[in-house]
Amino acid sequence: MPVAMITGGSKGLGRALAGALAGEGWDLVLDARTAGVLEETARELRGRYGTRVVAVPGDVTDAAHRADLVAAAGSLGGLDLLVSNASVLGAEPLVRLDALPLEGLRRALETNVVAALGLVQEALPSLRASEAGAVVVISSDAAAEPYPTWGGYGASKAALDQLAAVLGEEEPGLRVWAVDPGDMATDLYAAAVPEDTDARPSPESVAPAYLRLVRERPAGGRYAAPALLEGPAGQGGGAR
């Protein structure tokens, strides 16, 4: 069975992607900081789909934890897909740049960019050995559009997009996709803009867009999940 690693896999989009891949027969390595919630997710997926799911609690900013994740994938036979989903906002709720704590910006860059690259570096030997190695990084429209209060988070996602683009050039044997999922009803969005009570799509409604990438393996680049759900796979922007 193919093996996927998903960071931030205990809830929200990470959990939705885990369920979608498990339903397609993938074995999984899941990461999250809260061990109890992560183990509950892993048990549910094992019971529902009968797939192998290894839960590795920890923080992706910890190099030892990243090594443990790759080792866990090795115990399942290797690694075919790395989904870099773990993210932090840098401030909760989001604030204007003139009020953004610099420590919060550092935390966002460390988690959303530095740790993501560190995990790619750790996982590259396994991904290169796969016949269908792929990397997905979770982007945001805030990486490309100047939304007030989204500056710090958006800057981190813009940096992640550029890393993904360069990785795709440097590793032509892999598929590397940056995917903007669009607006979703997640804890992250609620923490970012708690006063926004409008109904938003569930992460589960977005997951098929990611499955389409994995199945069809279009050229590497930046994609918007809503566009992938509506028509031919094509690169472009999307929503936060």
3D structure, described in words:
The chain starts with a strand and ends in a 10-residue tail after the last helix. It has a single domain, classed as Rossmann fold (3-Layer(aba) Sandwich), CATH 3.40.50. It is built from eight helices and seven strands. The chain is 48% helix and 14% strand. With 240 residues, the protein is α/β, with parallel strands linked by helices. Strand 1 (3-6), helix 1 (12-23) and strand 2 (27-32) form a beta-alpha-beta unit.
Give keywords:
240 residues; alpha/beta; Rossmann fold; 7 strands; globular; Sc_DH/Rdtase_CS; SDR_fam; NAD(P)-bd_dom_sf; Oxidoreductase
**What is the approximate shape?**
globular
- What's the alpha carbon Rg, rounded to whole Å? 17 Å
**What CATH architecture do you see?**
3-Layer(aba) Sandwich
Which runs of at least 5 residues are low in confidence (pLDDT < 50)?
A: none
Fraction in beta strands: 5-15%
CATH class identity: Alpha Beta
Q: Secondary-structure element sequence?
A: EHEHEHEHEHEHHEH
Mind telling me the CATH superfamily name? NAD(P)-binding Rossmann-like Domain
As an assembly, this protein is: single chain
User: Which structural class matches the secondary elements?
Assistant: alpha/beta
Protein name: Oxidoreductase
InterPro entries: NAD(P)-bd_dom_sf, Sc_DH/Rdtase_CS, SDR_fam
Family: Belongs to the short-chain dehydrogenases/reductases (SDR) family.
Organism: Streptomyces rubiginosohelvolus
